[in-house]
Amino acid sequence: MKTVELVFIPSPGAGHLVPTLQFVKRLIDRNDRISITILAIQSPSRTTLSSYTESIAASEPRIRFIDVPQPQSPQEMYKSRAKVFSLYIESHIPSVKKIITNLVSSSANSSDSIRVAALVVDLFCVSMIDVAKELKLHSYLFLTSNAGYLAFMLHLPILHEKNQIAVEESDPDWSIPERVKEQPRKMKKVELVFIPSPGAGHLVPTLQFAKRLIDRNDRISITILAIQSFYPTTLSSDTKSIAASEPRIRFIDVPQPQDRPPQEMYKSRAQIFSLYIESHVPSVKKIITNLVSSSANSSDSIRVAALVVDLFCVSMIDVAKELNIPSYLFLTSNAGYLAFMLHLPILHEKNQIAVEESDPDWSIPGIVHPVPPRVLPAALTDGRLSAYIKLASRFRETRGIIVNTFVELETHAITLFSNDDRVPPVYPVGPVIDLDDGQEHSNLDQAQRDKIIKWLDDQPQKSVVFLCFGSMGSFGAEQVKEIALGLEQSGQRFLWSLRMPSPKGIVPSDCSNLEEVLPDGFLERTNGKKGLICGWAPQVEILAHSATGGFLSHCGWNSILESLWHGVPIATWPMYAEQQLNAFRMVRELGMALEMRLDYKTGSADVVGADEIEKAVVGVMEKDSEVRKKVEEMGKMARKAVKDGGSSFASVGRFIEDVIGQN
């Protein structure tokens, strides 16, 4: 991300210089990409401000002062304030032009990616606008007075043109338009079109981010193009409730392609998220074309401002290009995974993708430690590599990348992105999580939820380990027995969301007969006493409960963020997608998870034994572990990040400014 330099030219005098200095301090506090240069025009009369400006320069390394040389003109010219603030300042134009030309030239030739972005002039320095025009820079006026005075100044030339300036005391009162009241009518509303992949891990964060955007800025409305999942899903009730409660979020169902290939083609997730989604491009193009046309012909000044696509929907970038709409990527995963995806096409071009377990570890810019091939996404070894390279190669074509993470958690990766001109601007906006657990409740009747929460209410604080493996996580009967034995051996209280592979498809289902899959007598010995077994569970509500002390998890990114938010440490049991990489980084790079397995993959013949599970459960429940301390501290940082003044709050603001600014 480039650093930008703003050049301010204030008038000499405390009433102008002091507000300018306070405003520039606010700017650099708000955004670490901004630096300020103030061109100091010396006052022709004696002033005591120099010590004040020197103290500012000494304490703020991103604010510098450049003295503008005095023009060679007789001092006698400037005996009245009017001449000080007009002829005197205009006489500095040649010197100002020379200074700014040097600044622009230096930034163009510099390797540190700082560019002069704009000239900000004072009321009495508007003659400097000509310098900005000549050097093709944007110019802004910083008015140290008020909006009423601005209305007066804007009205004055109009009266002058009409020869209607009457200033005698006996003349009629002036009627000055209240320009401030007119301003909102000129501010266009913008519509953002989101295209998420089907599936809870993608749709839920998209909905939460959309809600955050409309809460933040009342000029924004959201349209979500809903691609129906190829497999049965229970998300529709949640989307309907969002649509009913948020009038500025609407859903448009994307029609299923009539000539789609037979279902046999879609037996792997990769094919669902590539070929299947690509088959919707014509329908998506038609919908967005209609939206653009409607907004162009509408009287309510709503403009389609951007297309925001999911990782698996990057083929829709072509639609945005064709319709001349900016496109952004919303990555529901983390900055480390973004680093991996950005690096993948580079390795492919060099023919350096080596994914055998015996191959050397990968050195990925943005990830601190070398990454063993065994924890890379399974897509690299199961025939989906070409599809992933195709997806990853589109990332750099976007105007920006929004990531569900926060600076404090992934400082290394985010700093690297900000210093790499080849990477579009990255907006870390997380944690974006469903704190109301709306999606979980849509899959759960009230009686089930009440049973779970009541059982937790009866348990001591931080005494329960929660086992849950995401919307796609399940185990066969042999592994289920080992989990049960491991839990019993651990002696820990447990809440286990047990789901089994579905015979009809890839979406797991609740177990219909627990006694068939659990060890003999296990339910009698544990259920309701030391533990509770359920099907689909309200995960966020469980992690938020005071009785929950540990989490045996598949390490899906949403689950990791939810656990960090609530200060609950994880023991790692990754299954698919990028979860192995997530687990590796949580353990080795961040030190915020306990290692059980880092390289387990769904579908493997590997069965994790009861003793290994027991050890992980006991470890993650340790009351005063370093992992628990780190997780609890990061939870506090996560909450601070999304509040006003926090890093993610600021990043959302920058994204909104970019979307609205380019409209």
Quick structural summary:
Keywords: Glycosyltransferase, Transferase. InterPro entries: UDP-glycosyltransf_plant, UDP_glucos_trans, UDP_glycos_trans_CS. This protein has 663 residues and is α/β, with parallel strands linked by helices.
Structural write-up:
The protein has 663 residues and is of the alpha/beta class. The protein has 3 domains: 142 residues, 3-Layer(aba) Sandwich (Rossmann fold); 197 residues, 3-Layer(aba) Sandwich (Rossmann fold); 197 residues, Glycogen Phosphorylase B (Rossmann fold), CATH 3.40.50.2000. The chain contains 26 helices and 20 strands. A 7-stranded parallel sheet has the order 8-7-6-9-10-11-12, sandwiched between helices. Helix 8 links the parallel strand 6 and strand 7. About 1% of the residues have low confidence.
**What's the assembly state of these chains?**
single chain
How many structural units, i.e. domains?
A: 3
Based on helices, strands and strand pairing, what is the structural class? Answer: alpha/beta
Q: What order do the strands of the largest sheet run in, or round the barrel if closed?
A: 8-7-6-9-10-11-12
CATH class of the largest domain: Alpha Beta
Q: What is the helix content?
A: 40-55%
% residues in beta strands:
15-25%
Count of β-strands: 20
Please state the CA-atom Rg, rounded to the nearest Å. Answer: 30 Å
CA-to-CA gap between the ends? Answer: 21 Å
Helix count?
A: 26
Query: Can you tell me the CATH architecture of the largest domain?
Result: 3-Layer(aba) Sandwich
CATH topology of the largest domain: Rossmann fold
Low-confidence runs: 179-185
